[in-house]
Specification:
728 residues; alpha+beta; Glycosyltransferase; globular; binds beta-D-glucopyranose
Length: 728
């Protein structure tokens, strides 16, 4: 989109006039989440017509469905996990003087929907005029608590401006979209409450929602007398409230909700816990719950705000990124990881990718390291799935799934799940990065070493010895650039495999020296043989790394230089490969979907000089169309490091505002979490020039010209650092 959709405000995102044509997009942008659950911003009254995808998700509640894929050559598993829709709790519908409130009928004025990022609160206000000219002011306030992850609330206020008469309100819990789950409870809860539970079919996870709905008048006004009754249907339960509205008087309906699942470690059924939590929430009251939630956000911002003075779009962009990352993951359960679209939408089926270690983990590592640890713990817990995948393809050790929730491979597509193997090295990189930044050796002994050994084993069995090159090669892979399918010696993959092996060797050595008893136990468990170490050394020492010393270019793969040249700058804007080029034309061309060699230079930063970065950036950047949202952030960071300030800033804005500006045109299906996290790195690593050196953090700032000041705060080696400030 050419025009920015939202005005650049430092702490808010505001829809200033009613834009039903952007409804699905706004549902993502204004979604609220707390790492445990996410609720898309479908309006409380629902959305009539096309262009809506309501969704409520609970982290890691999934079901298993038959795996698909016409190219499912090696069927690692015949089932795959998909995130399911939980029942929705956002519904609050009104009939005002007999007319159903629907802003798409009648007239809307004074409209304003605002996400207040500082407080984590979504409000919407408008005046609605029905077809008979009756005007009503409505206001909605919604939050998903960061103080108690099971709790959410909505307050809806109605004030007739030029009429008096009957009002009917229906506040619902509905499993209408809780795809393929079976309702198992659907009942009243006391006089004002209700409860609804659904169960997934294969995994048998129960999700239970309990709600309390109350009607109240404005302070000082006589109490609103409303009748409340329960309405039940097959897959829903509703509280219907009716009262007589008086012109000029505000009446509010407060809906408090508790969500629990049978997956939580807490004792007691989800049903009992949800009922208990909602009763406690009701005692505390909406205002106090909201205040607790806002206090939690204050603490979050104290630790992780990034302040940019001098450029509002840049400021709003990064705050939205940081806000969204905290909404997406809270590290409460090591069985939970981060979906590519967070808890903001159905895109990519809620699956977890290499995005986690390569993009999201560093944000948590330098802000709240316990969360980074929880992410790696998830990988440790799912090692069996990774072992299973390696075995299915005839390799040793562990090859993490390209996509998964439950730990087994969920991609049946041959060019991704089958050959995009670099995910194994991303996890190993995550382990190494975590240990370096925290000094948490216990994690290495207890979990990390096992990951490093098993992934090293995988690579040692994955390589082939090339007698002609007298080097180990890795044939038939897809690297980060997914347009280049089934190539030989993708430089990124080979280098990262070598890195993985080196870290495997280092971990074994270190553990032997510093935790010999634990090593002996691990070695027994893994049936570790001494000659494995020798093999890893040999492979790492003789890995083929495609490089042309004359040009100073690392070559993306063996045949990249011979493919059809492509230069984005000379290409007609509309003629982009996705959806337009046939597959054959794409793999014959140098066109790139996303950063590949530049991704390598980012991951292995210290191995490349500024000159290397500049040469390679200049060569690869014009070939990339950034069809993957993972790409702009890496381009920004590399451009910063190569001293190309304009590009660095341009790509930063593209990345940090990717969702706000709907750069890729698909934000409606959910946010791009990797891009949100990559933008944080653009600021901290790119513009702040942060490096870990000699066991400490150092900075080499290079601020974009319009920025007057940049400040942020990090945690390193168990310590919250003082806030860093950089000026020109
Ligand atoms: C990218 C992958 C990424 C995935 C999920 C794809 O379009 O090419 O690198 O892991 O999206 O974000």
């Amino acid at each position: 989109m050419s025009q920015p959709i939202y005005r650049a405000e430092p702490w808010a995102v505001t829809e200033r006039s009613y834009q039903p044509e952007l409804n699905e997009f706004h549902e993502t942008i204004f979604h609220l989440a707390n790492g445990y659950m996410g609720v898309r911003a479908t309006p409380e009254e629902g959305f009539s017509g096309q262009g809506t995808q309501p969704g409520t998700y609970v982290a890691s509640i999934y079901d298993l469905v038959p795996s698909y894929g016409p190219h499912n050559i090696v069927r690692v598993s015949d089932r795959m996990s998909v995130m399911v829709n939980a029942p929705d709790w956002f519904g609050v519908e009104f009939w005002l003087g007999g007319e159903r409130f629907d802003p798409r009928q009648g007239k809307v004025s004074g409209y304003c929907r605002r996400l207040d990022m500082r407080r984590g609160v979504l409000t919407r206000e408008l005046v609605w005029q029905d077809r008979r000219g009756r005007r009503t002011e409505l206001r909605f306030t919604r939050f998903v608590s960061h103080d108690n992850m099971h709790v959410g609330g909505i307050r809806s206020s109605v004030r007739p401006l030029n009429w008096s008469g009957p009002v009917r309100c229906r506040a619902s819990l509905t499993a209408a979209r809780a795809d393929a789950q079976d309702p198992f409870c659907n009942a009243a809860l006391g006089t004002d409450g209700m409860i609804l539970g659904v169960r997934t079919r294969e995994t048998k996870f129960e999700t239970v929602l309990a709600a309390q709905v109350e009607v109240g008048a404005e302070a000082g006004a006589p109490a609103a007398r409303a009748r409340s009754r329960l309405v039940r249907s097959d897959r829903a339960v509703e509280r219907e409230l009716t009262w007589r509205a008086a012109e000029g008087r505000t009446v509010s309906v407060t809906k408090l909700v508790a969500v629990c699942t049978s997956r939580e470690p807490e004792r007691g059924s989800a049903r009992v816990r949800a009922a208990r939590i909602v009763a406690a929430a009701r005692r505390r009251g909406f205002d106090a719950l909201l205040a607790d939630h806002e206090a939690a956000w204050r603490r979050i911002w104290d630790d992780s705000d990034i302040r940019i003075d001098g450029h509002r779009p840049a400021q709003q962009g990064i705050r939205y990124c940081v806000f969204s990352l905290h909404q997406t993951y809270v590290g409460h359960d090591p069985r939970v990881n981060i979906p590519a679209k967070g808890l903001s939408g159905p895109g990519y089926g809620g699956l977890y990718w290499w995005d986690t270690e390569a993009y999201m983990m560093p944000f948590f590592l330098y802000t709240e390291p316990a969360k980074a640890r929880a992410l790696l713990e998830y990988r440790h817990r799912t090692l069996d799935g990774a072992r299973h995948k390696a075995r299915a393809y005839g390799f040793d050790g562990a090859l993490f799934p390209w996509v998964t929730i439950w730990g087994e491979e969920c991609s049946g597509d041959w060019e991704y799940g089958m050959i995009e193997h670099h995910v194994a090295a991303a996890v190993a990189h995550g382990v190494d990065h975590y240990v370096q930044a925290t000094g948490d050796e216990a994690f290495l002994w207890e979990r990390g070493a096992e990951i490093l050994v098993e992934t090293s084993r995988f690579w040692a069995s994955r390589v082939t010895w090339s007698p002609a090159r007298r080097r180990y090669v890795i044939n038939f892979v897809t690297g980060p650039d997914e347009y280049a399918v089934g190539v030989n010696n993708n430089c990124y993959t080979n280098w990262m495999a070598r890195f993985n092996l080196e870290k495997g060797i280092e971990a074994v050595r270190r553990m032997r020296r510093r935790a010999p008893a634990l090593w002996a136990r691990l070695a027994r468990k893994l049936k570790f043989r001494e000659d494995e170490l020798r093999l890893w050394r040999r492979v790492a020492g003789r890995m083929h790394i495609p490089y042309d010393p004359k040009s100073g270019l690392w070559l993306q793969d063996d045949t990249f230089a011979e493919r059809d040249p492509f230069d984005r700058r000379r290409w007609p804007a509309g003629d982009r490969p996705t959806g337009r080029w046939n597959w054959y034309r794409r793999i014959r061309s140098q066109v790139m979907k996303q950063a590949d060699i530049l991704m390598l230079m980012h991951m292995q930063n210290e191995s490349f000089t500024r000159r290397d970065k500049r040469i390679n950036y200049r060569y690869y950047e014009p070939k990339c169309v950034h069809e993957s949202s993972l790409s702009p952030a890496i381009h920004s960071i590399l451009a910063s490091e190569a001293g190309l300030a304009d590009d660095a800033f341009r790509y930063y804005l593209m990345s940090a505002r990717l969702d706000l500006d709907d750069v890729n045109g698909n934000t409606g299906a959910g946010q791009h979490t990797a891009s949100l996290a990559g933008s944080w790195r653009c600021v901290v690593t790119g513009f702040g020039g942060m490096r870990v050196k000699g066991g400490g953090l150092c900075f080499e700032p290079r601020l974009p010209a319009p920025w007057k000041r940049l400040s942020f705060r990090m945690t390193f080696r168990g310590r919250r650092q003082r806030s860093r400030q950089f000026c020109h």
